[in-house]
Amino acid sequence: MTSTAAELLEVLWGRASTAPASASQLRLLHILEHQDGINMRTLAEALASTPPSTSRLFDRLQAAGFVERENSPADRREVRLRLSGRGRAFLADLRSRREAELRAVLALMPAAKRTALAEGLEAFCAVAAEQIHADAQGPGSRTA
Q1: pLDDT tens, residue by residue, 46-67
Q2: Any bridge partners for residue 57, and if so which?
Q3: pTM of full prediction above 0.70
Q4: DSSP structure string for 58-93
Q5: Residue 67 phi/psi, 5° resolution?
Q6: Using CA atoms, how far apart are residues 21 and 112, in angstroms rounded to an integer?
Q7: Which long-range contacts (CB under 8 A, 24 or more apart) does 85-89 make?
Q8: CB 101 within 8 Å of CB 15
Q9: Taking CA 19 as the corner, what is the angle to CA 56 and CA 48, rounded to the nearest 5 degrees?
Q10: pLDDT 10s digits, 60-95
Q11: Who contacts 101 (Cβ-Cβ below 8 Å, separation ≥6)?
C-alpha cells in the first residue's frame, strides 16, 4: 500500500510540475532552501554524491537561474551556495501546484478518512523528522 501511495503521489506531483526538474535537482534545491550558504563539499555529502557530480548538477541549476554562488566574506577561497530568488519562486510555485493536486484528491475522500489520514501523517512526519535529525547527528544518536 505504501508503495502504491508513493507512486500515485509521484504521479500527482508530476502533473503539478511546471518545469523539467529531476529528483536530484529538486533534492539539491530543497537542501539549499534549508541550508543557505553551504559549501560544495557539504552539499555533496547531503546528496550522498561526489563533489564533481554535485558540481555538474549545481552548474545546470545555475544556468537555469535557480541557484547562485558567492564568495564567503570570511574566506574568499570558500564559495557559498545559495538558492536564487528564481529558485525560491520555483519551489513556492511547485508546492502550491502540488498542494492543489493533493487537495483535489482529498476533497473526494469521506471526512472520517481524511481525519484518519491526517492523524497518521502527523505521526509519520514526527518519526521521519526525528530519524532524519538523528541521522544528521551521526551513528548512535537514534532514540528508541
Answers
A1: 999 999 999 999 999 999 999 9
A2: none
A3: yes
A4: HHHHHHTTSEEEEE-SS-TT-EEEEE-HHHHHHHHH
A5: -135, 165
A6: 36
A7: 87/29, 87/32, 87/33, 87/61, 88/33
A8: yes
A9: 35
A10: 999 999 999 998 787 778 889 999 999 999 999 999
A11: 12, 13, 15, 16
Model confidence band, residue 143 (pLDDT cutoffs 50, 70, 90):
low
Sign of the alpha-carbon torsion through 84, 48, 134, 9: positive
Q: Which helix (H) or strand (E) holds 140?
A: none
| 107, 109, 113, 116 alpha-carbon torsion, rounded to 10° | -40
Amino acid residing at 127: V
Asked whether residue 131 carries a pLDDT value surpassing 80, the answer given is yes
DSSP assignment of 92-134, as one string?
HHHHHHHHHHHHHHHTTS-HHHHHHHHHHHHHHHHHHHHHHHH
What cell does 106 get? 482529498
